[in-house]
From TrEMBL:
GO terms for molecular function: DNA binding; sigma factor activity. This is Sigma-70 family RNA polymerase sigma factor. Residues 99-151 form the RNA polymerase sigma factor 70 region 4 type domain. Belongs to the sigma-70 factor family. ECF subfamily. Pfam families: PhyR_sigma2, Sigma70_r4_2. Residues 9-61 form the PhyR sigma2 domain. SUPFAM superfamilies: Sigma2 domain of RNA polymerase sigma factors, Sigma3 and sigma4 domains of RNA polymerase sigma factors. One of its GO terms (biological process) is DNA-templated transcription initiation. Residues 5-39 form a coiled coil. NCBIfam families: sigma70-ECF. It comes from Devosia aurantiaca.
Length: 167
């Protein structure tokens, strides 16, 4: 039990980071992580150690997030006044680019967003991310490709050919 809880505790920062990126709401993300931890502890008997605990936890979090989105759609969407952006210019061009990228990521379909965040934000290998999302690796790669292409289009960062410098 102690080893399980120690392992669980090590993965909390990664779970919080992923949940915040998925929800873009600190409170909802914290609730999602708490629900994930509660479910993992309550069902630790179902965990079959064939590898690290982390992918199992990410699978739980991903499934809870999907369930939450389904129930939110049935209830209708509430607008959080605290997250409404005002028309104030950002102090730096870099901040603008990050805000633009964050908005573009939000427009991605959920399946593409999950794949992109697991691979780019969490740095998971394609095989690990595919296992968490319960899809073949090829499907994960095509979702990533579509997500990246959409982001390039939405942010105006179309792929440009690399120029070689001649010495």
């Amino acid at each position: 039990m102690v080893d399980f809880l120690d392992e669980l505790e090590k993965d909390v920062p990664a779970l919080r980071r992923y949940a915040r990126a998925l929800t873009r709401n600190i409170d909802r993300a914290d609730d999602l992580v708490q629900d994930t931890l509660e479910r993992a502890i309550a069902r630790r008997g179902l965990f079959r150690p064939r590898g690290p605990l982390r992918p199992w936890l990410f699978t739980i979090l991903t499934n809870l997030h999907r369930n939450s989105r389904r129930s939110d759609r049935r209830r209708g969407e509430a607008v959080d006044v605290a997250t409404v952006e005002l028309a104030t210019p950002a102090p730096q061009p870099g901040h603008l680019a990050l805000a633009e990228l964050a908005r573009a990521i939000e427009t991605l379909p959920l399946d593409q967003k999950e794949a992109l965040l697991l691979v780019t934000l969490e740095g998971l290998a394609y095989s690990e991310a595919a296992a968490i999302l319960q899809i073949p690796t090829g499907t994960l790669m095509s979702r990533l490709g579509r997500a990246r292409a959409t982001l390039r289009q939405l942010t105006g960062a179309e792929a440009q050919p690399h120029l070689r410098t001649v010495k």
